[in-house]
Amino acid sequence: MRVLVTGGCGFIGSHLVGELAGRGFTVTVLDDLSLGSPLNVEGLDVELVKGDSELVSSMDGRFDVVFHNGIPSSSPMYKGDPQLVSKAVRGVISVLEYARRRGAKVVLASTSSLYNGNPTPWREGMEVKVTDLYTEARLYCERLCELYSRLYGVECVALRYFSVFGEREEHKGSYANVLTQMLWSALRGQEFAVYGDGRQSRDLIYVGDVVEANLKAADFNDYSAGVKFEVFNVGSGRAYSFNEMAGLLRGQGLNVKVIYRENPVSNYVWHTLADMKKSAELLEFRPRRRVEEVLPRIVSYYARALKVT
HEC string of 245-305? Predict the structure, then answer.
């Protein structure tokens, strides 16, 4: 099978690329390197093309599946540059136009931020409320996927990622997962600021499990109502408070210095939690790695990456 991974040099994308290449897929990576590094795919038998997702529609290669991860992926990025909404939309249209002409399947990286304003646990059928620019961009991307499925028969699975953590987040900087940023602060001997009292929580899922969800999505074909479009949560179904995260890192021998501050963000998300029933039943996806199990090797990885002894 021949596949294209947009954003394949980034955090999640590079892990997906590594797994695909290891399984014998013919892999092409498209990345503008804004939040990724070619070092993340160095040594892999893949083709690397530098550019953003708007190039997909003009690419000559024949791909069976396009894993579309090359979308600006953090709410603060959109606050700083609202034009990223149009960039995200142009990118997904380019991917969908390619899929329409070539008969490719699309696996879209979406986000749990779509559920903001709803009570937890978050289920796929919940109302999507108006909350921020990032949410609007991802909702539009999902709706375009559904529209192309209805109009042209394009096959698309949208995966709503929850709080993904793991190795190779360093290129994301301030957009990295809160657990990872807390870890970095501890390794550097710095304080870590938490809004409120630290009881806010996030559904943490290890990047290796997210890769598995993508592979399941590529194989999925149990669509309903004749429309080849489906949405699935990709979380762990377990929420960790910020205070719990600090405790887990302290359990790894790290000196976590948390300072608590008043929250200045009006639309701050206090809790996230995935309802994983649909993913388990239809996608047959069940996350296998607990935070406590993978944390030791993640601490070791970042100690090396940050050159901390």
Answer: HHHHHHCCCCCCEEEEECCCCCCCCCECCECCHHHHHHHCCCCCCCHHHHHHHHHHHHHHH
Residues whose CB is less than 8 angstroms from the CB of residue 199 and which lie 6 or more positions away in sequence, other chains included: 241, 242, 243
What pLDDT shows up at residue 251? 98
State pTM to two decimals.
0.96
Q: What are phi and psi of 299, to 5 degrees?
A: -60, -45
Our count of domains for the chain comes to: 2
CA distances from 236 to 37, 116, 280 (A): 27, 18, 11
Residue-wise pLDDT for 89-99, tens only, equals: 999 999 999 99
Both 301 and 174 in one domain: the answer is: yes
Q: Are 297 and 175 in the same domain?
A: yes
Residue 121 sits in the same domain as residue 139: yes
From 253, 263, 248, 267, select the one nearest 193 (Cα to Cα).
263
CATH number of the domain to which 179 belongs: 3.90.25.10
pLDDT tens digit string along 171-210?
888 889 999 999 999 999 999 999 999 999 999 999 999 9
Question: Is the confidence at residue 116, as pLDDT, over 70?
Answer: yes
